[in-house]
Amino acid sequence: MNIVDYLRVSLIDRCNFRCQYCMPEGAEIDYILQQNLLTNEELLTLLREVFIPVGFTRFRLTGGEPLLRPGLTDLVREIAAFPETRDLAMTTNGFLLAPLAEPLYNAGLRRVNISLDSLDPDTFNQIIGNRGRDRWQQVWEGIRAAHRVGFDPLKLNVVVIPGVNDHEILDLAALTLDRRWHVRFIEFMPIGNGQLFGDRGWVASETLRQQIRDRWGLVESRVTGNGPADVFQIPDAEGTLGFISQMSECFCDRCNRMRLSADGWLRPCLLNETGQIDLKTALRDGASYEDLRNRVRHLLDIKPDINFKQRDAGTSGGYTRTMSQIGG
Ligand code: SAM
Ligand code: SF4
User: Which terminus of the chain has fewer CB atoms gathered within 10 Å of its CB, N or C?
Assistant: First the structure.
């Protein structure tokens, strides 16, 4: 059986972008009320007293946009300082990263994934729902700062949207030719506002690989991380390419993770809410740490039976919550 030791921790459900596939401008999103967010202290208590004792040792901070979380650098320092922490990473849109890259690195963050769906500022602004200022350049500065500071591997996440950015696959892949970066192409998921692109559907990873193979060739490779990506490399390139194919392949049997939402719900599967538990309320109601550990252990026991395959089988909300709410 798979060891589940990787926790994706959503720090906040709000965001400074309005990606069309996630939380588009005007969408009605029930944001978590401030008083329902886990405080930094509660989060650290859950990690120290509950998750680490049951075996979680690898953590990814996400959101919403995690760089919006107050006290983020201190939080990172505390999580990195747990002797059991083997890996601490973050997924961010990169917009606020440039000035924070060094403090976060010094606090103990070692890996960062930055979302960059396009190299063209106009397309980028269209995707992130920004009709005003150009935000691409500031994200690029964030990426460069992370590179300078030494985040390695530096990963870029590209959600491939048919008819919007799929003509840029070769340009994005070319970023790895002379940089030690890891560019990951993610199949677009019908989650949150996923129906937006309706009929256009999603592009299978194999189609992208074939384009890259035809241009440069492609060999299997490896990269540090916990992800479900199939990793390849253009021959002699400095960096690597990842393909996350959750739509065209089922990798549930390799799943090593759970997700903790910003309001303290522990969820066993991205697209399935079965069994999820409200740890924040239990903690605030005075449940003992042993009781909380037992609830998590139970969820770990039943997790193998909760997966993507059943996502259509009437589980509540799997498709209606956005990645920003679940903690993507
Ligand atoms: N705000 C940060 C960011 O965008 O990197 C972290 C949170 S975001 C929800 C995490 C990842 O989920 C991003 O790489 C984003 O592109 C991806 N994502 C969001 N909605 C998606 C969808 N419908 N299909 C595939 N990936 C999605
Ligand atoms: Fe914000 Fe990330 Fe969602 Fe885009 S994908 S709206 S950056 S949380």
Answer: N
Closest CA to 234 of 275, 294, 280, 174: 174
Residue 1 domain flag:
no
Q: Which atom of ligand 1 is nearest to the CA of 193?
A: 23
* Residues 186 and 227: beta-carbon distance below 8 Å: no
Residue 292 belongs to some domain of the structure: yes
Total domain count, the chain:
1
pTM of the model: 0.92
Q: What is the pLDDT of residues 139-150, one digit of tens each?
A: 999 999 999 999
C-beta of 96 in contact with ligand 1 (< 6 A): no
Q: Is residue 39 part of a domain?
A: yes
What tens digit of pLDDT does each residue of 36-49 get?
999 999 999 999 99
> Among residues of the chain, what percentage have pLDDT more than 70?
89
Q: What is the DSSP string of 271-324?
A: TB-TT-EEHHHHHHTT--HHHHHHHHHHHHHHGGG--GGGTTSS-SSTTTS-HH
Nearest CA to ligand 2 atom 4: 19
Distance CA 260, CA 243 (A): 24
In this structure, is residue 60 part of a structural domain?
yes
What's the CA-to-centroid distance between 189 and ligand 1, angstroms?
A: 10
User: The domain that contains 285 carries what CATH number?
Assistant: 3.20.20.70
The rounded Å distance from CA 267 to ligand 2 centre is: 19
Residue whose entry in the numeric block shows the structure tokens 């990195």: 80
Note down the domain range covering 129. Answer: 6-326
**Alpha carbons 113 and 94: distance in angstroms, whole number:** 9
Give residue 320's pLDDT: 55
65 or 326, which is more confident = 65
For the segment 63-67, the average pLDDT, to the nearest whole number, is: 96
Residue 310 pLDDT greater than 70, yes or no? no
Q: How far is C-alpha 316 from the geometric centre of its chain's CA atoms?
A: 22
